[in-house]
């Protein structure tokens, strides 16, 4: 199977967490009744939580796929996949952890991804348009400041950040997972730090292939998989990657990926090349969790910095993880994510993780 870098960006972590104060009167988390959590409140006929949401775009109306897992009146987590161009499917690992805490999961394939419509029009692959798409999904699913948590991973972190800067009044909590908020800084780190970790001969050959724009050359991925993917994307042999990752990667929309990210695995050359919200991030007042990992594809200090810049920031450090820390440092990732969401639900603004 031909692989592309499913997840363009990521944030690595630092060795310090953001400690924060908690309210003495904070309520204690209580697990929901099983029957109540799985209560299906949707209209008939039942669809197992699947809802196709109609979105309006400059090119007409399209449908995007969503699926709700569980039922929580106060903790609804909408998931924004990476790529750009991947699918919701690699988030399925969350079913093994978050429902036990009463957190409702909402899977969502962005336009051009997975089960959603694909207009096959590169003009549609545009960050501001995707922000408005998320807002239309929010409205259709009746998410609001009393229940709406938004998690964006990798490219989804860019989308989540951009959405929050415009619509944070609708959010209860924001999670930026494995994502820097500056693409120029991402490119610099890839070239000045990650590239230098390669064997010089391997790096020289990768650079040679990229200079010729010979990205279809099988040797390109043969070099990247053991030297990059297995060290910084998922820290295990590619043949042992969990099935949801491989399934999502196998459905990657290459047109969307290349348009936004560009074909190279080092830095960005697509529409996102100059995206940078380092000056604006301080405007966020919504409780925000940034998640990074030691072996991620980006600067280990950047995710901690994000948590310090926002008004109510918390930081989760995955010591053994990489870009897909929800798999290769799973216990740390899921424990911290669950603690953040339930803590905010109990009235806290910052969470010590």
TrEMBL record:
InterPro entries: AB_hydrolase_1, AB_hydrolase_fold, AB_hydrolase_sf, Peptidase_S33, Pro_imino_pep
A Pfam family that the UniProt record links to this protein: Abhydrolase_1
Coiled coil regions in record: none
Gene Ontology BP annotations: proteolysis
Signal peptide start-end: 1-25
Keywords from the UniProt entry: Hydrolase, Signal
GO MF annotations, alphabetized: peptidase activity
Keyword Membrane: no
Residue span(s) of domain AB hydrolase-1: 77-328
Family statement: Belongs to the peptidase S33 family.
Name used for this protein in its record: Alpha/beta fold hydrolase
Lineage summary: Bacteria, Pseudomonadati, Bacteroidota, Sphingobacteriia, Sphingobacteriales
């Amino acid at each position: 199977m031909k692989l592309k870098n499913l997840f363009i960006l990521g944030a690595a972590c630092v060795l310090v967490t953001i400690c924060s104060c908690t309210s003495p009167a904070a309520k204690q988390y209580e697990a929901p009744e099983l029957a109540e959590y799985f209560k299906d409140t949707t209209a008939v006929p039942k669809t197992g939580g699947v809802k196709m949401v109609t979105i309006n775009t400059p090119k007409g109306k399209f449908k995007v796929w969503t699926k709700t897992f569980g039922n929580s009146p106060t903790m609804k987590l909408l998931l924004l996949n990476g790529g750009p161009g991947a699918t919701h499917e690699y988030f399925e690992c969350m079913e093994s952890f978050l429902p036990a805490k009463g957190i409702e999961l909402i899977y969502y394939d962005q336009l051009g991804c997975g089960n959603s419509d694909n207009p096959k029009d590169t003009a549609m692959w545009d960050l501001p348009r995707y922000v408005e798409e998320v807002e239309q999904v929010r409205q259709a699913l009746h998410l609001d400041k009393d229940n709406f948590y938004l998690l964006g991973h990798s490219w989804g972190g860019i989308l989540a950040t951009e959405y929050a800067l415009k619509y944070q009044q609708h959010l209860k909590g924001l999670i930026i997972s494995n994502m820097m908020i500056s693409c120029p800084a991402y490119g610099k780190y890839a070239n000045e730090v990650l590239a230098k970790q390669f064997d010089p001969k391997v790096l020289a050959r990768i650079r040679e292939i990229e200079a010729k724009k010979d990205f279809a050359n099988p040797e390109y991925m043969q070099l990247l998989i053991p030297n990059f993917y297995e060290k910084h994307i998922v820290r295990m042999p590619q043949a042992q990657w969990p099935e949801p990752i491989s399934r999502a990667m196998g459905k990657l929309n290459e047109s969307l990926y290349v348009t936004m990210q560009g074909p190279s695995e080092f830095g960005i050359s697509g529409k996102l090349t100059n995206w940078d919200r380092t000056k604006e991030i301080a405007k966020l007042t919504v409780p925000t969790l940034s998640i990074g990992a030691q072996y991620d594809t980006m600067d280990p200090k950047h995710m901690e910095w994000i948590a310090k810049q926002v008004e109510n920031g918390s930081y989760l450090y995955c010591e053994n993880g990489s870009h897909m820390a929800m798999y290769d440092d799973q216990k740390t990732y899921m424990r911290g994510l669950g603690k953040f969401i339930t803590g905010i639900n109990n009235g806290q603004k910052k969470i010590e993780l």
